[in-house]
Amino acid sequence: VQLVESGGGMVQPGGSLRLSCVASGFTFSDYDMSWLRQAPGKGAEWVSTINRGGGRTSLARSGEGRFTILRDNAKNTLYLEMSSLKPEDTALYFCARVPQPGRLYVYDFRGQGTQVTVSS
Q1: Are the C-beta atoms of residues 100 and 4 closer than 8 Å to each other?
Q2: pLDDT for the residue numbered 105
Q3: DSSP reduced 3-state for 48
Q4: Pairing of β 91-97 and β 57-59
Q5: pLDDT tens-digit profile of 2-13?
Q6: Residues 18-76: tens digit of each pLDDT
Q7: Helix (H, G, I), strand (E, B) or coil at 7
Q8: Contact assessment for residue 119 and residue 25, using Cβ atoms and an 8 Å cutoff
Q9: How many CB atoms lie within 10 A of CB 64?
Q10: Is the CB of residue 116 less than 8 Å from the CB of residue 17?
Q11: Which of the four pLDDT bands, split at 50, 70 and 90, describes residue 104?
């Protein structure tokens, strides 16, 4: 199993980013997928989960109205579209595979992450 994130960077408050996660080594369309983030000195925080077909999503309150999780099963790719970014969104964002359908906060494999820094 390999998960490789990209798309992070430094952005000003109010800006937007689109994160990508390319999956390999397993049948991507068989699994729900999640995004999580970890700020310096803090534990991992669940951000969002999308079901295997892409038709059902769940989002943490911190991202409501600003973040959207998407997937393209034909490309084995998971996305996180983020807008109206705030300094408190600064974190290492990583994608993760959900081992069982419908479980939001559990993962069995994760990527190395992509850094998002929101600063003026």
Answers
A1: no
A2: 84
A3: strand
A4: unpaired
A5: 999 999 999 999
A6: 999 999 999 999 999 999 999 989 999 999 999 999 999 999 999 999 999 999 999 99
A7: coil
A8: no
A9: 8
A10: yes
A11: confident
